[in-house]
Automatic annotation (TrEMBL):
Keywords: Calcium, Disulfide bond, Lectin, Metal-binding. It comes from Macrostomum lignano. This is FTP domain-containing protein. Acts as a defensive agent. Recognizes blood group fucosylated oligosaccharides including A, B, H and Lewis B-type antigens. Does not recognize Lewis A antigen and has low affinity for monovalent haptens. InterPro entries: BG_Antigen-Binding_Lectin, FTP1, Galactose-bd-like_sf. SMART domains: FTP (SM00607). Transmembrane segments: none annotated. One of its GO terms (biological process) is regulation of cellular defense response. PANTHER family: F5_8 TYPE C DOMAIN-CONTAINING PROTEIN, FTP DOMAIN-CONTAINING PROTEIN. Gene3D superfamilies: Galactose-binding domain-like. Residues 73-191 form the Fucolectin tachylectin-4 pentraxin-1 domain. Belongs to the fucolectin family. GO terms for molecular function: fucose binding; metal ion binding. Homotrimer.
Length: 192
């Protein structure tokens, strides 16, 4: 759960719509929006204190998350030296100029695909977007072994975000639906 400023229900809905993991909200008349994230409701992830209504994340949830390993990748095209491996090299910097991001040419439906070391259940994917031209990733399809598990259509660009997938397979693909370049600075797949 996250709290952000908001003076009306409309503002709360806009905040929620701009966050890929938000599935609902509550407007508090104190000028706050409570945004609800799906991971907050997985069993046994919250501890409460009997003395007051304070809830904290348990360490069990952190242990449930497991980052999956990519062993290779490919992309539809390559612009300059911005190869597909830049998205799985562990470098989370979001600056294309430092060689930390992938970049394709400007064809329609450009894609990036990563190969996992073993077939796995992918709960969600974390994408690190580039700092400039971040809006190019506002519309994309997330696929597992060629089957779409999430279609993303954002109104505001993101910096780093989690996108649910909940599918089994060994190939994770991001296909740009914006009709231009695709650039990813880092991508991580997780299972619960």
């Amino acid at each position: 759960m996250e709290s952000v400023p908001g003076n009306a229900v409309l503002q709360c809905s806009q905040h929620c719509a701009s966050r890929p993991t938000c599935f609902g909200f509550s407007w508090l008349q104190l000028g706050l929006c409570r945004l609800f994230n799906w991971s907050a409701f997985i069993n046994d992830t919250w501890n409460s204190s009997d003395a007051c209504d304070v809830y904290t994340r348990s360490e069990q949830f952190k242990q449930l998350q497991k980052r999956l390993k990519f062993v290779g990748c490919k992309q539809s095209s390559t612009h300059s030296s911005h190869i597909c491996d830049n998205a799985i090299d562990g470098n989370r910097k979001k600056n294309l100029s430092f060689g930390s991001c992938t970049h394709t040419t400007g064809n329609p439906f450009e894609w990036w695909e990563g190969q996992l070391n073993a077939p796995s259940f992918v709960s969600y994917v974390t994408i690190y977007n580039r700092q400039d031209y971040a809006e190019r990733l506002n519309k994309f399809s997330l696929q597992m072994d060629g089957v779409e598990c999430n279609r993303v259509s954002l109104t505001l660009p993101f910096s780093v975000a989690n996108f649910s997938c909940n599918a089994f397979g060994s190939r994770v693909r991001v296909t740009n639906l914006f009709g231009q370049y695709l650039s990813i600075c880092e991508i991580e797949a997780y299972t619960l």
